UniProtKB/TrEMBL annotation:
It comes from Lentzea cavernae. Residues 176-312 form the BioF2-like acetyltransferase domain. Gene3D superfamilies: 3.40.630.30. This is BioF2-like acetyltransferase domain-containing protein.
Amino acid sequence: MHVEFSSSIREIDSADWDSVVRAAGAPVFYRHAYVSAYEQLPLTRVDAFAYFVVRHEGQSLAVMPAYLQTAANPLRRLHEVYPEAVGQPALLSHTWHCYDAHVPAVAEVLPRLLEAVVRTASMFGARWFGFMNVQRGNALSHALRAAGLPARHLTDRWTGGLTTYEHYLAGLGLRARANLRRNERRSGEAGVTVEVLPVDHASLDEITLLCVKTASRFENNGYHPGTTFARFVTALGDLAQVIEVRQHGRLVAAGVCLTDATRFHTWTCGVDYAVDGNYSPYGVLFAESVRLAIRLGKSTLEGGRDNAAFKRRHGLSPRHLDAVLHRV
């Protein structure tokens, strides 16, 4: 078993990389196309890129991207739990735009891989290495703990199972179910239209402005960096779809959704609540996200982070996410 290092994803065959990602059941954030788009159009500052492939007798057993980041904190959470790492370079297993950390692998490789990551971190002059957004209790979480790496709670992400829309509604509380149905009726009366579009047909510049405006309400400035965000979404191609919610032609909500084999990711969104009529544009967007996930045959709805009260009320459950940082 040996670990190969590359400084660019373009040096690694996409079919070989993706075969491991698929076999491991890793999320869309590890697909070659997503990682390639992030290298070309990073959504946060990245000082250097690192890609690892673990092989044995010519067979690829594991892959992992990593990023040298000094300001790896667009939502502030990482430095809230690791204040000692503020302002110091860290080689991290992914960026904040991935909320479900994995080491896509088809064999036990973590000890060997961690050795390679530590060497690379030292080569880059990083003071830290580690992982963000590791789901507590999953295989990676247990393996990191077994390797002696302690975890600190970072945030939660929200997820739920799907079969049919009626089954989804039946699983909600009476009030939430009634609110969704009422919101659908009121939005229809208010002239709201909903359209699902491929990225090359979506109004990405308009959507970016709405996402930036929404993020700024929560002091998450910089999460959708200018024209880079629209170009990044375009580069994702068929990994992404866009939901546009309009009232009399004006964009009032939009979501950029990602898909992999079993999951539908409501990855990011923007909402304008200054609408005509007594309805919630976010409620319209969420309901259409559930319907679209079911139409696409996805069994898991990934609701992302934050907005806990709404997501719990609408049938999603928290997955505790930890950060695992270690000094080099």
